[in-house]
Write a structure and sequence with these properties.
- The complex is a heterodimer of chains A (291) and B (402).
- Chain A is built from 13 helices and 2 strands.
- With 291 residues, chain A is mainly alpha-helical.
- In chain A, helix 1 crosses helix 13.
- In chain B, strands 1, 2, 3, 4, 7, 15 and 16 form a 7-stranded mixed beta sheet that branches. Chain B has a 5-stranded mixed beta sheet with strand order 11-10-12-8-13, with helices on both faces.
- The N terminus of chain B is likely disordered.
- Classes of the chains: A mainly alpha (291), B alpha/beta (402).
- At the A-B interface, strand 2, helix 3 and helix 12 of A face helix 4, strand 11 and helix 17 of B.
Chain lengths: 291, 402
């Protein structure tokens, strides 16, 4: 029956054409727009490199590097936290109600406004916030720790909760599909828990890991709420820079920055494919795991 | 090739909308007298509400006060002070089709007036009765005029400086001391606890005026910096940022209030109402809005009539509203609720006395008038749409990204 679902000769070209019109074409327009300029709140339709030159002169390229660094760091942190958590949730947590509650709790970031969630941290991490008040009143520190807020630490901290679910869910789902018999067989054949993890679970959950990395890294490249609210203007990321350009109606600048984001993402994904290609074929990422 | 001027009355969207609605309007006009027997066309127009779009700070907290006063119903859509959003809404979204007037920072008329989005003010309109007695200081301000044309009516204005905690810098708690901007940018007492506005229009101009005043940079107009001037200002700000002088770069009004209320910072180049709101939580006089040595960032909100509105039936009502902005009631409420001054402050004081406001409110109105007069004695600068906006924004990005 599954064989009958094979895409027809029409479906694939139709999809490619539609996708090109909906996604690729706007991207091309964005790239072309970056070669225009704005004067007095009006776009000047004369091709120029001025926008790209100003992106370099104003240091916006530094923002691109900073954004990439923070996005990759956060993706790695989320992966290190999410992998064991997903493994426990998929294979260790036997209580169905507990599992249901945890999964529900993980969805909270998806239906709460990011700003509302993040702004709370200000009153917790500020110099007169809860953390500093506790630390100073207990005599652990002599004066409030200022870097808890308006710093890269604060931005990383704020992003933890926002991007944890996007990493956990794909890994959890793929791990749930791994037949317990495989794990049992590995154990019966004398493998230690570590060997089972390394040679059975990890390879089989790699599609989920790759999906988690993609779903986490991509939105991180465009993050602007956490840096704006917890970075205090000192952790300017590409999302903030694009936002700032749009506020001034500098569409070509926003287009140039968006082009940088897309290019960086392309490089990251290409690197990911190269790194994982020996162990994992990307085309099998969403195929069902069969015995 | 640049885009030429274009007439918003002939825009694509207007054309399509006009074509679609022409027959419906004709039919409605034909049936209206029958549907509303006994109502003349004049009476119909007199009841037409006025639709405004503009900054939050210009609105009355309760517009029904105005309706009781002049009979006009207001439908006001508030927006923030984001120049880009405002320009986009007026220029690209044809806001004049749906709204009768706009209130925004003076300066937008430099672009939107000559481009045809704003209609020139009819100074002798019969409903604009307070125009003649309005001082030229307000009504002839370059913030509401361009190309020798009167595009706007002054609504409110102020000289922006910074809020501070007097005890931190050893200033007189009565708030009457002149505090130098040097303290804001370089004061050791506040180092690491200064918040600076993310708006380059305000922060770059204030920094430029400070540097100019002390002869540390050659600057012609602090509100409109050339490439070299903007670079010098950004270099200075980067140096201060890297020296750890700033605690945060804030964006919103609510953030200003929060930073002050939490005492997260000691000094902030905020809006004056933020200090008032913070004092509601901290107690009167805890935070003071500064009188400065070097001067103030000048801003004024103007009310501008949409060109398309002049062809509608409620022009008299629009002008009644414009006149209201010049009157005592609006003046009194704006000063009481936000601490902002505006034209004809004396009428505000008169209104408060006539309507039996408490003496402390009357005193506050008098103080608001005196405060603005005192600020006017210092250098005053500010532009919403500087001609060098592009280079200023780019240099500001350098500061943000440093």
């Amino acid at each position: 029956m599954l064989d009958r679902l094979t895409p027809s000769g029409v479906a694939v070209p139709a999809f490619l054409i539609t996708w090109s019109l909906v996604v690729i074409l706007p991207l091309l327009v964005i790239v072309l727009f970056s070669f225009l300029q704005v004067k007095s709140y009006r776009v000047v339709y004369v091709p120029t490199l001025g926008t790209w030159e100003s992106v370099i002169d104003s240091g916006r390229w530094i923002v691109a590097v900073r954004t990439l660094r923070i996005a990759i760091t956060m993706t790695l942190i989320e992966l290190l936290l999410a992998f064991p958590f997903a493994l426990w949730l998929a294979k260790g947590c036997k209580s169905k109600p507990a599992k249901a509650i945890i999964i529900t709790l993980l969805t909270i970031p998806f239906f709460l406004d990011t700003s509302s969630r993040i702004i709370v941290w200000r009153s917790i991490l500020g110099t007169n916030g809860i953390v500093n008040t506790v630390l100073t009143s207990m005599g652990i520190v002599d004066e409030p720790i200022s870097w808890l807020l308006y710093s890269e630490f604060a931005v990383h901290f704020g992003m933890l909760g926002s991007y944890f679910p996007t990493m956990v869910f794909p890994i959890f789902m793929i791990m749930s599909l791994i037949d317990d018999d495989y794990i049992q067989a590995s154990s019966d054949l004398g493998a230690s828990p570590g060997q089972t993890l390394l040679y059975v679970i990890l390879p089989m959950s790699l599609p989920g890991v790759v999906a988690g990395v993609v779903f986490t890294l991509v939105p991180l490249m465009a993050a602007f709420v956490e840096p704006q609210m917890l970075g205090g203007g000192f952790v300017n990321l590409l999302g903030n820079s694009v936002n700032s350009a749009l506020q001034e109606l500098k569409y070509p600048t926003a287009a140039a920055l968006s082009t940088i984001v897309v290019a960086l993402l392309g490089v990251c994904l290409a690197a990911l494919i190269l790194i994982t290609r020996k162990r994992f074929d990307m085309s099998t990422m969403f195929q069902a795991i069969r015995r | 090739m640049t885009q030429g001027k274009f007439d918003p009355r002939l825009s694509r969207r207007n054309f399509v909308e006009s074509a679609l609605s022409l027959s419906a309007l004709t039919a409605a006009a034909a049936t209206l007298p029958a549907a509303l027997p006994g109502m003349s066309q004049q009476a119909w127009a007199a009841g037409a509400p006025v639709k405004g779009y503009g900054v939050t700070t210009a609105q009355l907290k309760d517009w029904s006060i105005m309706t009781k006063s002049n009979g006009v119903t207001m439908d006001y859509t508030p927006t923030n002070a984001d120049i880009g959003v405002f320009m986009r809404d007026v220029m690209s979204n044809d806001l004049g089709d749906t709204h009768d007037f706009f209130i925004f920072d003076g300066g937008t008329e430099d672009v939107l007036g000559p481009e045809g989005y704003y209609a020139p003010i009819v100074e002798d309109h019969p409903e604009l009765t307070l125009w003649a007695r309005t001082p030229d200081t307000w009504k002839r301000s370059d913030l509401i005029r361009a190309d020798d044309t009167q595009w706007g009516v002054p609504v409110i204005g102020n000289g922006d400086a910074f809020g501070y905690f007097p005890e931190v810098i050893g200033a007189n708690p009565n708030g009457q001391d002149e505090i130098p901007w040097t303290t804001f940018f370089e004061g050791e007492q506040v180092k690491g606890r200064v918040a600076i506005d993310r708006s380059w229009l305000q922060s770059m101009s204030e920094t430029a005026n400070f540097l100019k005043h002390h002869g540390r940079a050659e600057i012609e107009d602090p509100a409109d910096l050339t490439q070299e001037e903007a670079r010098a200002v950004a270099d200075y700000l980067v140096e201060r940022k890297q020296a750890g002088h700033f605690r945060t770069i804030f964006t919103a009004f609510e953030e200003q209030v929060q930073l002050l209320s939490n005492k997260e910072i000691d000094m902030i180049n905020c809006w004056e109402p933020a200090t008032r709101d913070a004092n509601l939580a901290l107690g009167p006089g805890t935070v003071v809005y500064a009188f400065t040595v070097e001067g103030y960032y000048k801003w004024g909100h103007g009310a501008y009539v949409a060109t398309a509105a002049m062809d509608r039936d409620n022009v008299d009502n629009i002008y009644k509203v414009l006149n209201y902005f010049l009157g005592g009631e609006y003046r009194a409420y704006q000063a009481k609720e936000r601490g902002y001054a505006g034209p004809n402050m004396d009428l505000g004081v008169e209104y408060a006395i006539e309507h039996g406001w408490p003496q402390e409110d009357v005193d506050l109105l008098r103080y608001t008038a005196e405060k603005v007069e005192r600020k006017f004695e210092k250098p005053f600068w500010g532009k919403t749409t500087p001609s060098n906006a592009d280079v200023m924004e780019e240099e500001w990005q350098r500061f943000l990204n440093a």
